[in-house]
Write a structure and sequence with these properties.
single chain, alpha/beta, rod-shaped, four-stranded mixed beta sheet, 24% strand, 8 helices
Length: 415
Amino acid sequence: SSKNSSIPAELDELVLWATARDPEQRPRDAKAMLEQVQETRRLMSEVNGRTPNLPLQTVVMPNAPLASAAAETQVLASRVRQRTGPVAFDNTTTLAKRADQRRARGRWFFALVAILAILAGTTGWYFGSGPGSKVVIPEVSGTNIAEGTSTLQKADLVVAETVREEFSITIPDGKIVGTNPGAGQSVAHGGTVTLIVSKGPQPLTMPVLVGLTEEAARTALNGQFDLQESTYLFNQDVAAGIVLSAFGVGRDGSALDLATVTEYWEGQPVTLTVSLGPIPNVKGMSVDDAKQALADKELVGSTTEDLHDWSDDVPKGSVIGVQVPEGTAVTKGTVLQIIVSDGVEQVTVPSVTGKTWTEARALLKAAGFIIVFRDPLSQALSGFPDNAVVRDINPTDGTSVDKGSTVNVKLKTKD
């Protein structure tokens, strides 16, 4: 109405009523709103000298007790719906004030957006490339000092002149173990990083292991070394379960006898050699019994090479012992050759009849016989070997007898 004097104040009031902030000050429902709009329209028509063309409301009245069956129709005039809220007397001022408030809110909203945009840009610059930006420290472990330094400097970091040294069982001597702050941490651009360089594994006291039981040796190592799976060997002089030797790896990669050193490096490999006890004694057993005794110790007894030998004390057909393959350390599963006895060695009585005692005696002794004289004369003639000859011998010439058997010799004077 402040812009058009022909607009009645009731229209201002209708707008205020419909847009009130408090729900209790607004129309209760659409019907109430419609009625007030129609009333305001009527008032505006009257102001302009026109009769409003409002739709008439038609109501169907209920039947009276004695009325006819046809319903009566009654025309009702429009009812004025009074607003439920308070009436504003200066509607023009109120509406203008609200418009100004909306414009002011718009200006404040625009200013707020601009401020937030400036703050966002400033924050992005500060943390993106300004003083507040961060650098993630790259991983340089395992590289040498020159390579690690170059990598860190390319990330806009400063490498401290002094390095820190640490023992390491995984990083070789002289290589970088890590950094302080560590890899993956965020620091400011130009931040200082200290290199941590490996001194290799830490040298530790090596305990005496040879002669201990395997369990005691493991306990003595105290988890400070990389204990490998033990090896097991048969040993004729050391009881089962006792450590025979311990080996490691030298700095040059060669095998290292740990019994010869007093210090060894932390985390380095240690291999124990443990005795399985002596190889079973199968002398005098049958071949089958010998094979079973060896199998009980997880050894294999073989007779495929048909190895036989003479024996003065083992009957023919029984086992003298076993033969270990040359250069082989006997452990579980090793194949051993069984040696079967052929009994006492047999020799042939040499042909000495008619020979001087000098010749005959040399031949008999070389064959391993024990010499006895058959009578006192022969005994006496043996003192003159070049003038005595063998008259006869028992067993006779060419007879096969056990080596070391006794022969009876009879001598006579040389013709």
